[in-house]
Design goal:
With 347 residues, this protein is α+β, with helices and mostly antiparallel strands. It contains 14 helices and seven strands. The protein starts with a helix and ends with a helix. InterPro entries: A/G_AdeGlyc_MutY (IPR005760), DNA_glycosylase (IPR011257), Endonuclease3_FeS-loop_motif (IPR003651), Endouclease-III_FeS-bd_BS (IPR004035), HhH-GPD_domain (IPR003265), HhH_base_excis_C (IPR023170), HhH_motif (IPR000445), MIG/MutY (IPR044298).
């Protein structure tokens, strides 16, 4: 076991990437990086980390911001519940910890959006607390090296790999070790085409010996992908103003803004859209389809088949939004991409 951790640490000393939060013991910055990088690649998340640190240098700055401001800065990163939870956690730190970000596992696990992995990472890096991290990269390294086929997304797998991670960790240098094994999984033991021939652990890797590298780790089958049909009503009044609504229900994009939405069970024809608007007492006007081919937006468990319908109104919209104000609203990427191409021509 000692050979495993020492080898990973040595590899890390020679191969670690130069990242802005590396070497920091500030739990706020470590927390920001961990939340942003959940389900996000470093090259995508790094610009967001830099934006957040610049906009909110301290947890008190983040706590004092509005949720709308935080969501707007987060726009495009996806999984928006992370941003909402992050903002709520910042306010908890401000109100219950006097603005001093906690660095122990027991305190960190109380924060919204902070689970075992994030609490372990921060506590080990900032306080030297001997708590091993188990993220997707760590699952992959441990599963392959020790030849474990227990599904990583099962409750039994979570317990088993946490125990295994505890047995192989380097407790005397836990912060560095946790970063090392995550980096090892990200760069060396990659999901696809890992560099097995040049791997310093290849002599003891059971998956390599058994020719099972591509089979491990094992995951239980994902839930079935759901297809949904979205019809956005892009209203334009005589003053070129439009409408956005805030999504308040739980589910995708909670608290983000979008055009008035009609969800259907299939693609709709213009006549059907007009009938729905008339029946449900929506604003009515001349209807045209922005593009014949729908936009297909893929989320983890949902595929959104989306059309944007332009509705030209004769009457002014009460509290309509002018084109120059649209950029102030946090919107899903799907809507953002539409606005980027449509606004230049029509708004």
């Amino acid at each position: 076991m000692t050979h495993f951790s020492k080898t990973v640490l040595h590899w890390y000393s020679q191969n670690k990437r130069d990242l802005p939060w590396r070497g920091s013991s500030d739990p706020y910055k470590i927390w920001l990086s961990e939340i942003i990088l959940q389900q996000t690649r470093i090259n995508q998340g790094l610009p967001y980390y830099l934006k957040f640190v610049e906009a909110y240098p301290t947890v008190s700055d983040l706590a004092s911001a509005s949720e709308t401001e935080v969501l707007k800065l987060w726009q495009g990163l996806g999984y928006y519940s992370r941003a909402r939870n992050m903002h709520a956690a910042a306010r908890t730190v401000e109100n219950e910890f006097n603005g001093i970000f906690p660095s122990t596992y027991k305190e960190l696990i109380q924060l919204k959006g902070v689970g075992d992995y994030t609490a372990s990472a921060i506590a080990s890096i900032c306080s030297g607390e001997p708590t091993p991290v188990v993220d997707g990269n760590v699952y992959r390294v441990l599963s392959r090296y020790f030849g474990v086929d227990t599904p990583i997304n099962s409750s039994r797998g979570a317990k088993y790999f946490k125990k295994l991670a505890t047995e192989v960790m380097e407790p005397l240098d836990i912060g560095e070790y946790n970063q090392a094994i995550m980096e090892f999984g990200a760069i060396q033991c990659k999901p696809q085409s890992p560099a097995c021939e040049a791997c310093p652990l290849n002599s003891g890797c059971l998956a390599l010996k058994q020719r099972r590298v591509s089979e491990l780790p094992v995951k239980l089958r994902k839930q079935k992908v759901k297809t949904r049909y979205f019809n956005y009503m892009v209203y334009r009044d005589p003053k070129n103003r439009t409408l956005l609504h805030k999504r308040t229900e739980k589910g995708i994009w909670q608290h983000l803004y979008e055009f008035p939405l009609i969800e259907s069970d299939r693609l709709l024809e213009p006549e059907e859209v007009y009938e729905i608007l008339e029946k449900d007492d929506h604003p009515q006007g001349a209807i045209s389809l922005w593009k014949e081919n729908p936009v297909v937006h893929k989320l983890s468990h949902q595929h959104l088949i989306t059309r944007f319908w332009i509705v030209e109104l004769k009457k002014e919209i009460s509290q309509g939004i002018s084109p120059e104000k649209l950029d102030e609203y946090p919107v899903p990427v799907l809507v953002s991409e539409f606005l980027r191409t449509y606004k230049n021509s029509y708004f």
